[in-house]
UniProtKB/TrEMBL annotation, chains A, B, C, D:
Keywords: Flavoprotein, FMN, Monooxygenase, Nucleotide-binding, Oxidoreductase. It is found in: Cytoplasm. Its EC number is 1.14.14.21. Belongs to the DszC flavin monooxygenase family. Pathway: Sulfur metabolism; dibenzothiophene degradation. It catalyses: dibenzothiophene + 2 FMNH2 + 2 O2 = dibenzothiophene 5,5-dioxide + 2 FMN + 2 H2O + 2 H(+); dibenzothiophene + FMNH2 + O2 = dibenzothiophene 5-oxide + FMN + H2O + H(+); dibenzothiophene 5-oxide + FMNH2 + O2 = dibenzothiophene 5,5-dioxide + FMN + H2O + H(+). Residues 240-352 form the Acyl-CoA dehydrogenase C-terminal domain. One of its GO terms (cellular component) is cytoplasm. It comes from Lentzea atacamensis. CDD domains: ACAD. The keyword Nucleotide-binding applies. The lineage of its organism: Bacteria, Bacillati, Actinomycetota, Actinomycetes, Pseudonocardiales. This is Dibenzothiophene monooxygenase. One of its GO terms (molecular function) is flavin adenine dinucleotide binding.
Amino acid sequence: MDLHSLADRLSGRASKYDVSGDFPEEDFDDLREAGLMGLMVPHRLGGAGATFAEYTDVAMRLGSGAGATALVFNMHASVTGALAHTPDELVRQFGAPESFFASRDRVLAAAAKGALYAVAMSERGIGSRLSQVRTSYERTGSGFRITGAKTFVSGAGHADAYLVAARDSSAAEPRVSYFLVPAGPGVEVQPAWDSLGMRATASHDLRLDVEVDEDALVGGIEGAALLLAQVMPQWLVASYAAVYVGVAQAVLRHGVEHLRERGLHTLPLVRARLGRADSQVAAAELVVRRAARQVTDDPGSQETNRWVWRAKLIAGDTAADVAFSVLEAAGASATRRGHPLERLYRDARCGALQPATSDVCADWLGACALGDDPDEVARW
Amino acid sequence: MDLHSLADRLSGRASKYDVSGDFPEEDFDDLREAGLMGLMVPHRLGGAGATFAEYTDVAMRLGSGAGATALVFNMHASVTGALAHTPDELVRQFGAPESFFASRDRVLAAAAKGALYAVAMSERGIGSRLSQVRTSYERTGSGFRITGAKTFVSGAGHADAYLVAARDSSAAEPRVSYFLVPAGPGVEVQPAWDSLGMRATASHDLRLDVEVDEDALVGGIEGAALLLAQVMPQWLVASYAAVYVGVAQAVLRHGVEHLRERGLHTLPLVRARLGRADSQVAAAELVVRRAARQVTDDPGSQETNRWVWRAKLIAGDTAADVAFSVLEAAGASATRRGHPLERLYRDARCGALQPATSDVCADWLGACALGDDPDEVARW
Amino acid sequence: MDLHSLADRLSGRASKYDVSGDFPEEDFDDLREAGLMGLMVPHRLGGAGATFAEYTDVAMRLGSGAGATALVFNMHASVTGALAHTPDELVRQFGAPESFFASRDRVLAAAAKGALYAVAMSERGIGSRLSQVRTSYERTGSGFRITGAKTFVSGAGHADAYLVAARDSSAAEPRVSYFLVPAGPGVEVQPAWDSLGMRATASHDLRLDVEVDEDALVGGIEGAALLLAQVMPQWLVASYAAVYVGVAQAVLRHGVEHLRERGLHTLPLVRARLGRADSQVAAAELVVRRAARQVTDDPGSQETNRWVWRAKLIAGDTAADVAFSVLEAAGASATRRGHPLERLYRDARCGALQPATSDVCADWLGACALGDDPDEVARW
Amino acid sequence: MDLHSLADRLSGRASKYDVSGDFPEEDFDDLREAGLMGLMVPHRLGGAGATFAEYTDVAMRLGSGAGATALVFNMHASVTGALAHTPDELVRQFGAPESFFASRDRVLAAAAKGALYAVAMSERGIGSRLSQVRTSYERTGSGFRITGAKTFVSGAGHADAYLVAARDSSAAEPRVSYFLVPAGPGVEVQPAWDSLGMRATASHDLRLDVEVDEDALVGGIEGAALLLAQVMPQWLVASYAAVYVGVAQAVLRHGVEHLRERGLHTLPLVRARLGRADSQVAAAELVVRRAARQVTDDPGSQETNRWVWRAKLIAGDTAADVAFSVLEAAGASATRRGHPLERLYRDARCGALQPATSDVCADWLGACALGDDPDEVARW
């Protein structure tokens, strides 16, 4: 199935999952069948070996079908992409044991076969600031015991494993590590997700009280979490962006369909709204694709990071603005629940509010533009 | 119960009714108890004898408690207000029989005792353009038989009678009359309302196949509908406006509460968002109150009508803008269903889309400002 | 001459003075003839005894004729209005000697006869923050010697006297007093004003090295400057606001004239721009008039001050927004120098940038809305 | 001299030419020396053989130095670029005589040696709509006699020849041809340019009463004007766009410099303004470069034309928005004439108003997005 048909199928189910708030099982069946769970996995492990730019294209298309599904997929791609794209030398340099590479490959090969990974980073009251994580871990004889609670875990209850950020309970200084914790006993999903938009992400809470093996420690090294945030901000900030450009494209598509059906497409004010929306969406797509190319070609540079933040800011704001204006052009009949524009209006509002929020991006970009040295780490 | 306490009670239930989409029975029990069903009814018939300006104040306060409840009340106030405020001489001049006054007084006295009236004007595909109404009536021996279908009837299934616009099936020229049709057999509610915002208005469809007495004809004269639209645009356009200023005030109130709880109130970008929102809401309130005073002092004049359209435009746009910006200040935690800002974000979007839409108001006001003679009637 | 005709005369000359940057002598001849120099002066001293609300009306109308002239007049009205409106008891309470009242009356009576007063408060690098004034004074045998430099002195070279803020050179703590310094030797105008907009205000620099009599000390008391800023923020912040509403009204008027002349008034996008501009200007006028009524009825209260800041914010932003949009509707032919819209576009941009700037107002209003206690004094 | 240094030199003189309104002679000396007059001229004729994408890069950089200079250069590049890029086969197909190619090469070779060409298309009251051109031509024994008046001729009085659109006075149907008319007797410049912004373009009026040789007829074929507008909209619409992105970049650069000098760069609201401006400018640059690449790779296609209109819309709006916001961040001290931000604020406003205006672009793009077939020709 090509991406275009796949997006169509997602689009056809988006309203149903939005209304029920259920996890989009059928969408993930399709994603598995299309081989997308292994998108970021290297060829040698059975995957498609995609670059960040290729991922961005996929995320945009999925997002134009069903935003919530694309956001869950984005989390999976972030886990597999970060694992696949971190160079071996770098990991060795940071002290990873050789055993790490085998366990990493197992994780990636499982994804290529259909395993779904989720991210459990945020906690209530601290958002996604890694430096303040309260979930903790301690060494046991054979591995680690992890205890705590997470929130906003997209795909909770449907993932095969969760990337969990936790702090070393024995360290005086904050030392935050990542673990890939398999679903199962000790990992309890607590229904909490009932949201304005992006309702089908199943971003429930997770309660953790679980023992994991030694090789669940990602990278095989403790304290790697903040490091990763600095090296690969794209996976924490920019990978959403493509999804929201897809959402904005869906607004245009459904707006055009509705306006033609109702015979409103010849009204000059309607036409002007659509024309401006078309330009904004085209511009946002270019910015997101540019950021993706930067990440692929020159990961981690200051210039790349600026593009990443621009992409997040512009994609989130554009989706919200375009949905606002096109809904106004479409009129009250498009506000009925079940109408695609009604759902998209709610979905589109969420981008600017997801971390890093548009206001945070603007602040950071302003500091850069003004020649100041934004202290990135402080933001995590 | 004073208006402040009443609004508080409505506010406390708004989330519940938003989630269920049920009609806010308890709110209307409170409104009845507070004597508000007779707000527009003259003192001599047991009512409060309010002016349009006094109504505006009530609508704003109710709207700041629960927008949907205030919209349903607005429809009731429009029916009773239009009946109460149309001068006797004018009605006589248009040919009303003397019997009209007794039947009008019965209708108003019933309201003062708690009867609820609703408006059944819109039809699918034509919106609220009276000139294109398809619901029709024909004379019977003792009155009229009305046949047709209506949509967006706020309070459907809970009103004691419906103000129905229908065209004379025997006339070649369109002749549209108003009837006050009692609830009962032949007036069938068809559940259809499931909307982005203002979910508790129960604005369902109505199927009509019903016979009514002679005195159900409003004014006792056929063909009065378009006339009324011209003489009293305030009840068709501006009475919403106060509700949306109330909604915008609620956004500020809940925004402040949320931001202080979360400790976000000292962030400069948050403060600037709130400061601008505060100014916008204060300005919108002044415009709506000014329009209301104009209606009270100089009903029907061109200057009054301009203020009425400005009020509709500014109230609708302000509510939507302020909800958009304050939600962004509040962040993702305020997008959980059940959070007042989540509901208000959806409710606030509806004002600009209700007729006359903001784009229509802007067009009309532009024509006036440019010295053209806007053909009001054509818009109905 | 009534205000309407007067505004017309100002409007007819506005382009000439904008191009040359000269002080509008003819306008002030007309203002003198119309008795407006004594607008704020009590009846017993030969003036019109206007309230702040009446002043606001005059300022708006003058501003709709010629913004720059209205700004210079605003400075004169601020000096005479503050002197006339400060209650005698309050001045006595702060320690004013009885001799003060005679000297104050002389100053006001001179205004009623045509004297023009200007304000010399700002200094380069500190703006209008009184607490950081560097211009200083020292006691001499018969009065004071004042030394320093001022900037942005509207009407410089054309005023009969200047209200100068200066700090006591002998005090350790900052003690800032006001002096009314007559034009003449020791008060040297240095041409410096050549600005984007409001070009005819002659807001040049002033170099001061001058001795003044004892009774030049305003209030007869030292250290009164900060006090006044707190008691009467309206004269420092809100009195501009009315001028910018006038400017916005002029944009509408000249926009309509231009669009009709060019036959562009029937274009739907043009009409929508004008309709939205009309609403914004109507709203801004209401806010400014409301603030003025508050000042008249309840000067100095927190509620009044909030309205004053809202008025400043909304008037400045509205003028700029409306000029931006109407110029776009008017097209390139309206950008020729000498075209009223070209001038108004530049004039209108200045309001939000004059102290307190829109961003400062938004910050202060946000703090109030969020329940914080804005420290007003710190801003001066 | 590299482009960076060249832009710096232009930037250094921009204020001087803005104040005087004189044609920037020194800038064109520099452009000649840098070989830019032959930028679009093929290598075989002594030029640089640039593509449209390469031109776009040059225009953006020149625009970031001095907008007015870049606009004049843009006209020259449009003439030489359209001549150089129209394929020989196409011209032959339209009936061009073989003699055309020699005369075209002479024109291009002269540009490579420093000749400057200007465009005389607009006429008072009809703008740039070719179909309504009133300037006419008639055949003489040896060529043509051209009579009429043109307006907005950038570079008037400084160009070596003017591309003039004129209609065949003998034809019943409008038949509009282009002539390249040498400066000299019969071509009279009438000073008329005194504008809000872009003051140094010398866009004066031109009065024509002149005989030209046979080979002044561009393409050697009559009636080619509308054709060219359809085949190459980029030169009529999009080549401005790059200039305004340059202007927006200059706003950022000078804004940053001013804000750091004044110590305002740490204020959160200032930082947020700069951050949003940075994103907008980056997005506009991508859109303009994308449109340029489309023109280079796939000239004349519907998809290319959409990008061309998006580029015009976004570049014009972005320049104006960014200048508006950054001036507000910079404050009143940046509104002094001679300050780069004061000039840029005026320059930046002109882009959206130049044809095709932003409103026209939005309308056309809306029609495309809504699946209608925009009748391009009708717009000329």
